[in-house]
Amino acid sequence: MDIQGNVALITGGTSGLGMATARRLLDAGAQVVLMGRSPERAEKAAAELGGAVTVVGDVADEADVRAAVEAATRLGRLGIAVNCAGTARMGRVLGRSGPLALESFAHVVQANLTGTFNVVRLAAEAMAGNDPQDGDRGVIVCTGSITAFDGQEGQAAYAASKAGIAGMTLPIARDLARYAIRIVTVAPGPFETPMLDGASDQLRDMLLQGTVHPRRLGNPDDFASLVAHVVDNPMLNGETIRLDGATRLGLLR
Ligand SMILES: NC(=O)c1ccc[n+]([C@@H]2O[C@H](COP(=O)([O-])OP(=O)(O)OC[C@H]3O[C@@H](n4cnc5c(N)ncnc54)[C@H](O)[C@@H]3O)[C@@H](O)[C@H]2O)c1
């Protein structure tokens, strides 16, 4: 499907992978709606990108996502939805102060998994009304993580949420096939984004040691480039694609 002429809704679009994707899709001729949680970051991202519409809200909230979808359909044909919103709160299952709070686990699953599903279902509803373009009424990209497959200590909640995204990708592709909507999940390895801002030098070294080639952290443009290809390539559907330079996360010791 062409990027040009479509409207793209990008959650988590005011920073990191989402913002790089917004820049890429804008350059390719799309209009973009960025959904983020922080009004200050939304304002800054809109100023930096120029021409992006921003909606502040929570991806796990039905009304907030409906408002973002409506903002997109007001602009034109909502043909692309990219789920980049996510949180990476860490915590061991059994720590020094006892078992991980259930609230902490639920918070991560709510933002990452329920939030992604919420955007998928409401974006799909709008896309189903589009005329097909190159055979597709819409393309949805979700962001998983290689943590879904080789999660580390302290990542049970995050890994569960990302494994959920990987697991629902094929059944959603099957559900949405009758509407000619494709869905693909990208599972990045460690990328240089604000999510890693708090990472210690020791953790960064450890992440770098796990990389194979290229021996560097991912650049948000690498992610944006794959999203653009997913939109373009009609045979990509129902799949989770690792984007990690052959990185395999090892034990944190
Ligand atoms: N950076 C990495 O190493 C890495 C690796 C694998 C996967 N990911 C995933 O990539 C995605 C993008 O993260 P990033 O690295 O660009 O970091 P980031 O922190 O810059 O972006 C995440 C964005 O999601 C927003 N967000 C969080 N919860 C939200 C909610 N409930 N509603 C709306 N917005 C919400 C945040 O405000 C932030 O803008 C995330 O899903 C993350 O889990 C990142």
From TrEMBL:
PROSITE patterns in the cross-refs: ADH_SHORT
InterPro entries: KR_dom, NAD(P)-bd_dom_sf, Sc_DH/Rdtase_CS, SDR_fam
A Pfam match: adh_short
Keywords associated with the record: Oxidoreductase
Gene Ontology MF terms in the entry: oxidoreductase activity
Keyword Oxidoreductase found: yes
The organism's place on the tree of life at top rank: Bacteria
SUPFAM superfamilies in UniProt: NAD(P)-binding Rossmann-fold domains
UniProt family annotation: Belongs to the short-chain dehydrogenases/reductases (SDR) family.
PANTHER family per record: 17-BETA-HYDROXYSTEROID DEHYDROGENASE 14-RELATED, SHORT-CHAIN DEHYDROGENASE/REDUCTASE
Protein name from the UniProt record: Short-chain dehydrogenase
